[in-house]
Structures are given as C-alpha cells and as structure tokens.
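Task: sequence design from structure.
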C-alpha cells in the first residue's frame, strides 16, 4: 500500500497531507501519516500524542488538549483558531510558544496569520497547508524553507493537526514548528 500523499518540490521541501486509511470520495485508499516519516523526534512524539487523543474520532476536541502532557513541545507549539464566518476560513493565533515569539520578534497571540505571513492563502505552496487541514480534517507535515526570511533559520519542520468538537468541522489547529540553522542544527535562539 502506498504512503501518505506527499509532494516534493524543486526547492527541496516536502509537504505531506495525512489521510485516513479509508476510502476517499473517489474510493481510493490512503494510509495515515506515520510518525516515522517525521524527521524530528519531538515533532513525531507530538504527532503520536495527537493520535492518542483522538480516541477513535477523526480528530480530538480542544478540550482534550492539556499542555502539561507535552512539556517537550511547549516552546515550539502553537494553536490557531479557525474562523468560518467568510467563504474561506481565516486563521488567528490563539497561543504561541516562546520560541515562536522570539523568532518572529513579537507576541503572536490574537494576530491573524494573513497579517503575519505576506503570502498567506489557500494557493500558497507553504501556508496552503492550513486550508488543507481544514478541508481534509487531517494533519499536514511540512519540512523545508520557511515562508518568511528569518534571521538564523534556514529550514523548518511544521506539523499542523486539526481539533474540533464536531467530527466534520475543524475549529482549532494544534501545531508545532522546529527551526534549523544553515548547518541543519535545531535552533533554540
């Protein structure tokens, strides 16, 4: 059986959208993203934690998230609220780990992602993952160049995982990002 849907682009980055091991609308079967496909062990651990919170549901609810369960991820973790009031969903940072605040040189809580990332939108090769997580209700994993030019970060790994009180609607995205310098070493600033 084939692995998760993955696209490798000329710039050397990879985007994987995880989909359940069940028939999609066209009847094709796809396996769920495997933690072993994630490069960073802490990101893989965070993904396994999200899987355990599902308890047989398509995705966990926001109320299932207890930050004390993942202290290893807190500096790199963030939560994004999904606003469904317009034709396209809009995304707002609810919480952002200390490392993200240091990297972006500002507090992110309450900011809209399209105000932080200049090319944010459904067609964006990198940031389109947020829209895919909402439409597929499945996690998305990205490893490659950051969408913003960051001072000491040459590469990132990002995992976006849906949260929702209803099985058919994503209300929040629980996420983690890890930054790497030009030598491929994880940066903590």
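Answer:
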């Amino acid at each position: 059986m084939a692995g998760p849907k993955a696209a490798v682009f000329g710039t050397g980055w990879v985007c994987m959208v995880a989909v359940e091991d069940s028939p999609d609308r066209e009847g094709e079967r796809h396996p769920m993203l495997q933690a072993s496909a994630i490069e960073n062990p802490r990101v893989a651990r965070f993904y396994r934690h999200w899987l355990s919170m599902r308890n047989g549901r398509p995705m966990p609810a926001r109320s299932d998230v207890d930050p004390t369960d993942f202290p290893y991820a807190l500096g790199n973790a963030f939560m994004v609220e999904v606003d469904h009031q317009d034709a396209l969903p809009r995304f707002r940072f609810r919480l952002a780990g200390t490392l993200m605040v240091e990297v972006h040189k500002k507090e992110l809580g309450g900011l809209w992602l399209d105000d932080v990332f200049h090319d944010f939108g459904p067609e964006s090769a990198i940031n389109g993952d947020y829209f895919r997580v909402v439409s597929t209700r499945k996690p998305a994993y990205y490893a490659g160049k950051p969408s913003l030019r960051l001072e000491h970060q040459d590469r990132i790994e990002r995992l976006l995982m849906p949260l929702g009180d209803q099985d058919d609607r994503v209300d929040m995205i629980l996420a983690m990002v890890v930054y790497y310098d030009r030598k491929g070493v994880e940066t903590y600033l």
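Residues 102 and 178 are 13 Å apart (CA to CA).
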